TrEMBL record:
UniProt keyword list: DNA-binding, Transcription, Transcription regulation
Single GO MF descriptor: DNA binding
Domain of life: Bacteria
GO BP term, pick one: negative regulation of DNA-templated transcription
Record-linked PANTHER family: HELIX-TURN-HELIX TRANSCRIPTIONAL REGULATOR, ICLR FAMILY (PTHR30136), HTH-TYPE TRANSCRIPTIONAL REPRESSOR ALLR (PTHR30136:SF24)
Domain called IclR-ED: residue spans: 75-259
Name recorded for this polypeptide: Transcriptional regulator, IclR family
InterPro entries: GAF-like_dom_sf, HTH_MetabolicPath_Reg, Tscrpt_reg_IclR_C, Tscrpt_reg_IclR_N, WH-like_DNA-bd_sf, WH_DNA-bd_sf
HTH iclR-type domain location: 10-74
PROSITE patterns from the UniProt entry: HTH_ICLR, ICLR_ED
Amino acid sequence: MVTKNTVKLVQSVAHVLQLFEVFRTADYKEEFGVTELSKILGLHKNNVFRLLATLEARGYIEQNKSTENYRLGIEIFDLGQKYLSKLGLLKLARPFMEKIVSEINESVYIGILKDGVVVYLDIVEANQTIKIVPRVGKDVPAYCTAIGKIQLAYASEEELNKMYMGARLKKYTDKTITSLPELKKHLKMVSENDYALDDEEFEESVRNIGVPIKNYEGISVAGISVTGPVCRMSMDRIEKEILPVLKKYSREISKRLGFQG
C-alpha cells in the first residue's frame, strides 16, 4: 500500500516548491539573482537557472530585464486568486466593499493573516485624486497594520509568542510598535474595542481603520479596512463617519458566514 510516508518525493518538484518558499518568506524582498538563489537553496547555479527558465516559460516566474533578477510571475497571483475564489469570501465580500466605498469614498481592503503577515486579497478603490498605492497580492507586517492587528487581537498568547517571541519588530515609522509586551498591551485594547487603527505605523501620512470578519464560530477569519491619507482620515471623521459604516457592512459579511453575535 502506497502512503505519504512510503512515496518517494520527486526531487525536481521539491526544488521548485523550495524556490517558491524563498519568495514567500522573503522579508519584503521581491527579486533574487541566480547566484543568490543557488546559495539559499544549496543547488548548483545551472540547476537553479534551469528551474527558473522552466517556470519563466510558463509564467510562474518572470525576469526583471533591467536587473536580470527574478521575481514571481502573474500566474502565481492568478493561481492564488483561483484558490481564494473557491473559498467564496471574496465573492461574498465584494458587494459590501463597494457599498462602503460608495458611502465614504475611501479605498477598502480585505485581507487575511498568515504566519504573522497580512495578505491583502482584494481592494475597491475610491474615486480620489490622492490615492494609496494598492497592496493586493503583497505581504505586509501584521503588527503595524489595521487588518493585521484586528486579527492578531483574536490570537492566543501562545500564538503571539510563536509569531513574535525573539523576533525583531521592524520600525517603519516613529509610531511603529517594536516590542512584544507593548504589542500585547495594544492588542488587548483592540480586542475590547473590536476595531484596530494603524495611525501612520506602517507608512507615514497614511491611516487605516480595520474591523474583523467573523465566521459561525465567532473566529476572525479575515479583516476589512478603510485606508486613506491623513489629510482626509481625521480621527473625528474616522470615529463619526467611517467606523460606523465599516462595522455595519462587516457585520453583514459575517452574518453570511454564519456569525450570530
